[in-house]
Here is the input.
Amino acid sequence: MTELVVRRLLIDLAQPMARHWCAGDAFRTALFNALSMSFPLGEQFFIDAVRDAHKALPPDLQAQYAAEVRGFVGQEATHRRIHTLFNNHLEQQGLRNRWALSIEKQRKLFTGQDPRHALAVTAANEHFTAMLAEWLLSHPEVLQGSEERLQTLWLWHSAEEAEHKNTAFDLYAALGGNHHWRLVWFRRTTLAFLVDVTRQVLSNLHRDGSLYRPSTWASAWRTLFGPAGLVRHIWRPWWAYRRRDFHPNQQASNLSAQWLEHNRHRFTPVGETG
Here is the structure.
């Protein structure tokens, strides 16, 4: 079982932030803003899926996974709360959250269905967030020049996503989830993610007047396809998920544990599992 600690982040999100808070870079700001817009409802979807799956386990397995599920729920609930505060600033800047509408529609589709379907979607999304987390922890210079509190927010979130990346996947296996449906939902999740993130980024850029600036798309190319680009970094782990013998631990690194250890002064543990 994975031991998960729920942490309270020691940053102040009450103060306003710059429109292009990511070191003045319009594209990177729009990308991170888009991701943040997906988190409050997305994290709630993951919480509900994991809770429902845990309830469906036989009693012995419920006991085995109880502590890990509590830790997962606690971490995701904390992410949901703090990104709601972050997103309040985006709304005040005139941005509109279209991604949340898509997630709400998805949630309704799974009402009353076999809990393994929502759990497979959650496992797929957790793989995406783990890939993004590893990229950001590997390349913290992406945030260089941003306010320290915002760098802390994104790196802390990344560290915890990498930390609990196994939970939904392991629950899916414990519930008897099969490889076929895991891949079906992974493909659908990939398509939905690409559509939603692209649409939200473009909306963000349009609303802040940066959509047609050459500098915006020069940054997009560097951020996505440059030597340290996101797409270059996540391609192999994305493909690896398709393997029958895949497990999230195969993508393990020490970056999450290192960041959490070196930045203990930035958070307070509020509960532990195990």
In short: Residues 22-263 form one domain.
